[in-house]
Amino acid sequence: MAEEMIITPWEVKGKIDYDKLIKEFGTKHITEDLLNRIKKHTKELHYMLRRKIFFSHRDLEWILDEYEKGNKFFLYTGRGPSGNTTLGHMIPWIFTKWLQDKFDVELYFQITEDEKSLVKNLSLEETTKIAYENILDVIAMGFDPNKTHIFLDTEYIKTLYPLAIKIAKHITFSTVKAVFGFDNSTNIGLSFFPSVQIAPCFLPSVMKKKNIPCLIPASIDQDDYWRPARDVAPKLGFYKPAQIHNKLLVSLQGPTSKMSSSDPNSAIYTTDTPQVVKEKIVKYAYSGGQSTVAEHRKKGGNPDVDVSYQWLTFFEEDDKRLNQIKEDYKSGKLLTGELKLILVEKINAFLKDHQKRREKAKDVIDKFMLRD
Length: 372
Ligand code: TYM
Description:
The protein is α/β, with parallel strands linked by helices and 372 residues long. It is built from 18 helices and eleven strands. It has helices spanning 18-25, 32-42, 47-50, 60-68, 87-103, 113-119, 124-140, 153-168, 173-180, 188-198, 203-208, 223-232, 274-284, 293-299, 307-315, 319-331, 336-361, 365-368, and strands at 6-8, 11-13, 28-29, 54-58, 74-79, 107-111, 148-152, 214-219, 242-246, 250-251, 254-258. A seven-stranded mixed sheet has the order 3-4-9-8-5-6-7, sandwiched between helices. Strand 1 and strand 2 form a beta hairpin. The longest helix has 26 residues, at 336-361. It is globular. The termini are far apart. The structure holds ligand 1. Ligand 1 is lined by residues 9, 76-80, 88-89, 91-92, 110, 112, 115, 197, 216, 218-219, 221-222, 246, 248-249, 258-259.
């Protein structure tokens, strides 16, 4: 029997049916019409849009309506520091950087060291330490220092708190229980926390004393926060935050699980050396190939379940090259071991540049941080 699909900010299990999520969460597909509308402004489409890695949205049409009227949106996204940054976390950030460049907009980036210490077996001191490591990765993405504002909840709480309180007043325990699955054993920090992650949706509107549209690029796993956020918005006189959702990069070990910062064999970290990247992919990447070379040559591999191929769809920007790899794998011309090495090369080239920028980020952290 297929494993039940669970997708919350803290747990992802089973094979994810993205169409079902669109129905369950009440979001919309990104249609060709909408892609064409985006393209009018951006000239080209990001490969994550072309490939439907960003597959769902709420109110993106409205974001463009307002933008066309001269009412620019801001971007809001974030990271919950529970371990080293993985390649999965970078998916929404790669796209967020593209949106910032193309639309020339501000980005607010929240770090939820509070959330992760409430959810995981980690102290607040530990998550705060991890936060600074993660921030280096965020800065290394190349966001515009003049338009990017990163904040840690426990440092910036003085500004967030009045808003979080106003939000919390409109969200009942029965709502968070239903949305997040809290029960009597859930610590009380978590029942309040959603209002802290919702607050940045409205913060720039408060700071600039006028309503500013908010667009959140993030994976669909964060959607539990945005449904209550959208219910509360009109009650407080704000615009409802809009979303654009990406699919999850699967675990190295197979398409039925999310990669996790806490399982080193399921994920590749931004700090992994080329040798470690190679070892992990060669040893763990789930294969869609046949069990012998002879059989593989005859029957070919299955790119739909092969993790190396799936990861290439997230990282190989060139459509033609990607398609050639797919065809060669399907026909049996390309063996699993060879496909793995293509991925190793791609990821190592990507990480080489990232790690250089990550080192430089240490000198410019203060330029990006919002502090009370
Ligand atoms: P966190 O740290 O779990 O994840 C950071 C971002 O990465 C996305 N994500 C993934 N995307 C693709 N493939 C994966 N395997 C994968 N795993 C995680 C997440 O959707 C997220 O966008 N509570 C949040 C932090 C946060 C936040 C926000 C995120 C605060 N405010 C606003 C998005 C938008 C968290 O713990 O994310």
